[in-house]
């Protein structure tokens, strides 16, 4: 049994979402720190092109997108549950909204010029320029556009007021009573704002929201140990991918199981992954690919929010 390996960097909010899930489930895991901006040659050796943060590795199985990573960690340890029985649709839907609309608002506010100047004040020369160029490339070619700062400022109080009311009426300490994936998905954009004094007031001005966020962050990150990128790649090379999931494949009109395809996100970070399509389930797509350094790999990507094209 391979312990999960998380490829991430400390200031990534989507990585914080996954780190909190690891803490919620009290899992032990290995931490590989990746660059904040491209190039990321060690990561791409595993993913085949997928560049977004974080990426989860379990042996020779590589998982992209935090929503799919959450489902993999749920399979790793089913209790406590990320999808409480009877709330699966509600939880998954709110989490998807938070990872999209709420995150775009928070990112616009967190990376406004004054906040960016504070974030990079102690960084080496050229770091800010490289970051801005990298994020421009990240949002190029997808359906998501960065939200204008003035629009984010105008709409943020509405979003927080709705969240404040939900928490005031929740039957418990979390969004739907018991903790769920929805809490971690809503929390990570707010964590991003909390990281800087200039933007922390956008969260802390709402008492119920601030108290709830503290409770979510109190789950911590579980038990982690550092691992180098070279060690993670060697673990992948020495491992055999896990057996494919049971259940029928749901094929498309222009691609089939066994065909060589590309799979890419549609929102941002749209660099494709190419490989042989092994599985097309309701939630995940699995591609077989080989890398000179990492060997035979199965790359897992979500079906929702990704496009498949036959080669």
Automatic annotation (TrEMBL):
InterPro entries tied to this protein: Glutathione-S-Trfase_C_sf, Glutathione_S-Trfase_N, Thioredoxin-like_sf
Keywords: Transferase
A GO MF label: transferase activity
Annotated ranges, domain GST N-terminal: 2-81
Matching SUPFAM superfamilies: GST C-terminal domain-like, Thioredoxin-like
A Pfam match: GST_N_3
Name of the featured protein: Glutathione S-transferase
Organism: Azotobacter beijerinckii
């Amino acid at each position: 049994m391979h312990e999960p390996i998380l490829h991430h960097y400390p200031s990534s909010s989507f990585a914080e979402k996954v780190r909190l899930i690891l803490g919620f489930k009290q899992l032990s895991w290995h931490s590989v720190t990746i660059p904040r901006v491209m190039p990321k040659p060690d990561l791409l050796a595993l993913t085949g092109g997928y560049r977004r943060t974080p990426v989860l590795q379990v042996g020779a199985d590589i998982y992209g997108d935090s929503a799919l990573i959450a489902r993999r960690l749920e399979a790793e340890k089913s209790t406590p549950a990320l999808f409480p029985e009877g709330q699966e649709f509600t939880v998954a839907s709110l989490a998807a909204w938070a990872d999209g609309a709420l995150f775009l608002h928070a990112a616009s506010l967190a990376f406004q010029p004054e906040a960016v100047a504070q974030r990079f004040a102690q960084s080496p020369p050229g770091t800010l320029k490289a970051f801005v160029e990298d994020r421009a490339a990240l949002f190029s070619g997808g359906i998501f556009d960065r939200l204008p700062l003035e629009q984010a400022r105008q709409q943020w109080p509405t979003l927080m007021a709705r969240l404040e009311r939900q928490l005031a009426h929740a039957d418990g300490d979390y969004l739907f009573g018991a903790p769920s994936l929805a809490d971690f998905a809503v929390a990570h954009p707010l964590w991003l704002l909390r990281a800087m004094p200039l933007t922390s007031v956008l969260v802390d001005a709402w008492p119920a929201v601030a108290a709830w966020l503290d409770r979510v962050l109190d789950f911590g990150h579980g038990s982690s140990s550092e691992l180098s990128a070279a060690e993670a790649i060697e673990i992948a090379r020495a491992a055999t991918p896990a057996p494919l999931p049971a259940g029928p494949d749901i094929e498309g009109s222009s691609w089939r199981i066994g065909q060589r395809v590309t799979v890419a996100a549609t929102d941002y970070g749209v660099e494709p992954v190419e490989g042989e399509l092994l599985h097309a389930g309701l939630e995940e797509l699995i591609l077989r690919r080989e890398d000179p350094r990492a060997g035979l790999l199965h790359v897992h990507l979500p079906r929702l929010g990704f496009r498949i094209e036959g080669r």
